[in-house]
Amino acid sequence: MAKSISLRKMWHHCNEAIKYNLSDVNKNNIALEAYKSLLNSDDPLVKPIHKKFSSVLKCDQIEPLCTSIESLLELPVKDGDFLIETTDRKEATSEKTNLVFYLHNIRSGFNIGSIIRLADGFNIQSVLLSGYTAGITNPQVKRASLGAEKNIKVFNDDSGFNELKNLITNGYQVVGLETAQPNEALDQFSFNTKTVIIVGNEKNGLPKEVLGLCDKIIKIQMHGIKNSLNVVSALSMASYEWNKQCR
């Protein structure tokens, strides 16, 4: 009997092929050959796989096979697994805007990287990091940003918030995206062209010393049982509203 492989190993081969968008013939062939070995396994979980995909696997079935194995093995799906880097433009389609994202004590590298990618999407001026917010050398941040940091200035502020204070001196409106009182509803708020939007820790929000530097606090009106959104979702909504008003 030919040597068999495990479902986990098969999943690995599928992922390797998918990583190259199924354009690497060698990676594809390895996955197709591995499937033949998988069918020799006595693992009962292989039976539904065999029934669904027959005895011969085709290239266009590699991705659905990968998904089926993830389901059978109850493998956790990471946020980063949904990010696919495609061919990017060589240059932005618009000029830089006078919008700045300010991230204070953000824990999640995925959130930080996603916000940098969001910053590139709106082609904003810069992203400032403060507190223990990780920088672009962090592997998770780098993976989630997908190279967006090449187009966006990302730099750190000091413990005295001097970079933020310089922006205030230069006429920037500082807006905290928070649930703290008093606040104004996002859809009723009037942004300035020169704006800093500050977001804070996913659990604890913005501390008093940062709130004290804000001109206004804005809040997204919630209609369910939760009182807030993920920081990336919230900042996306605020950025879109700023874009409508000021671009």
Q: What layout of secondary structure does this protein have?
A:
Layout: H1 7-19, H2 25-38, H3 46-53, H4 62-73, E1 97-104, H5 109-121, E2 124-130, H6 139-145, E3 153-156, H7 162-169, E4 173-177, E5 184-185, E6 195-199, H8 208-211, E7 216-219, H9 231-246
Summed up:
The chain is an alpha/beta fold and 247 residues long. The protein is built from nine helices and seven strands, in the order H-H-H-H-E-H-E-H-E-H-E-E-E-H-E-H. The protein has a seven-stranded parallel β-sheet with strand order 3-2-1-6-4-7-5, sandwiched between helices.
Structural summary, described in words:
With 247 residues, the protein is an alpha/beta fold. The chain has two domains: 7-77, no CATH class; 97-246, SPOUT methyltransferase, trefoil knot domain (Alpha/beta knot). It is built from nine helices and seven strands; from the N terminus they run ααααβαβαβαβββαβα. The chain has helices spanning 7-19, 25-38, 46-53, 62-73, 109-121, 139-145, 162-169, 208-211, 231-246, and strands spanning 97-104, 124-130, 153-156, 173-177, 184-185, 195-199, 216-219. A seven-stranded parallel beta sheet has the order 3-2-1-6-4-7-5, with helices on both faces. The mean pLDDT is 89.
